[in-house]
Write a structure and sequence with these properties.
The protein has eleven helices and ten strands. It is globular. Helix content is about 40%, strand content about 15%. The longest helix is centred in the first third of the chain and has 38 residues, at about 1-40. A hairpin with a 5-residue loop joins β2 and β3 (about 95-100).
């Protein structure tokens, strides 16, 4: 019996040694190959060619300097040579696509109704001041308090790149946005954006010529592929990664009501997302990385040092001043 046990132990050890003999070299080769193509993705992929470079993006049209999503805010952003307007859209009862972040009018106008329950001409004015969401305690004012139609934005800024976010599966809204983009011949400079993959699928079906941004689930998928070493070998249909910068969590961005969860989210997301090799890989493949919503110069600095294409801010004047004075710093090696 002892001899049999010894023979069994020897056989198991030999099998393990044999497995390690073949596995370790294969694993080492895979790791080296993954790192090689992570740094040189153009050997495997033809990079996307973008029609514009969004270094300065205006969040909700520049909601820290004028009332959000108003024509006055957008004109101010354009005056600061913004490269991108970041907008959200809703649909009124009479089928008009309007620029509005919220479905409800309560925060914006003090009226306890949804945008979709009123005709365009019935929409109330914005409040005289609105708190800047990513700068708590700060308020924006402006002489223009009117909600605007997306069509009016396209007419006023025909060649201005715009990111249009759709928050819900409203097929009529998606279809009308797609139709307006086609009508004004701005397919290449209008980005489909949504947090939900189910919504993005409908957006791409409505107008597949428009570039797309990553949804939340697709963003997590890319992170998983990156850490598994598979990202260099996978095609990427998206052209924009529009992501929050982890350093703003628990400072100006509070995704959770619990302070402890916010602190945990800040640590985990910083470790996962703030990887120069990831951002540089995406940029080399023509995927432009844009961080939101940054309102302080120190955050501008962090974003550009990571290698981001640009920044979305509530304060386009501040970001313009930073870019004019410093330019985007060269990423640290």
């Amino acid at each position: 019996m002892a001899q049999l046990a010894a023979a069994g132990a020897w056989s198991s050890g030999a099998t393990m040694s044999s497995l390690l003999y073949y596995t370790l070299p294969a694993l080492s080769s895979y790791v080296m190959l993954s790192i090689f193509f992570l740094r040189r993705p153009r050997l495997l992929h033809t990079p996307w060619v973008s029609a514009f470079c969004p270094r300065l993006g205006a969040h909700r049209g520049g909601s820290g300097e004028r009332l959000e999503n108003t024509m006055e805010a957008m004109e101010n952003a354009v005056a600061q040579r913004a490269d991108l307007l970041e907008l959200d859209c809703q649909l009124t009862r009479d089928g008009v696509v309007v620029v509005s972040h919220d479905k409800s009018l309560s925060r914006q106008s003090g009226v306890n109704r949804d945008v979709g329950s009123l005709d365009f001409e019935e929409l109330p004015l914005y409040k005289e001041e609105l708190e800047v969401y990513f700068s708590p305690g700060h308020f924006a004012h402006g002489s223009d308090r009117h909600m605007v139609r997306l069509e009016d934005v396209f007419r006023s800024f025909p060649r201005m790149p715009i990111s249009v976010e759709v928050k819900e599966q409203n097929e009529e809204l998606i279809r009308k946005i797609a139709g307006l983009v086609r009508h004004y011949e701005r397919d290449e400079i209008t980005i489909w954006a949504s947090e939900k993959s189910s919504v993005m699928k409908k957006c791409k079906a409505a107008n597949p010529e428009m570039p797309t941004a990553f949804t939340i689930s697709r963003g997590f998928w890319v992170l998983l592929l990156y850490y598994l070493g598979l990202l260099p070998f996978i095609s990427i249909p998206e052209r924009f990664l529009i992501s929050f910068l982890p350093t703003i969590i628990n400072r100006t961005y509070f995704p959770f009501s619990c302070s402890g969860l916010n602190q945990l989210a800040a640590v985990v997301s910083k470790w996962l997302i703030m990887r120069k090799s990831l951002i540089q890989h995406l940029e080399q493949r023509g995927v432009q990385v844009v961080f939101w919503c940054l309102n302080e110069e120190s955050d501008f600095e962090v974003a550009f040092r990571l290698g981001a294409t640009g920044v979305i801010t509530d304060y386009p004047t501040a970001l313009r001043r930073y870019l004019d004075n410093h330019g985007p710093p060269a990423p640290a090696s």
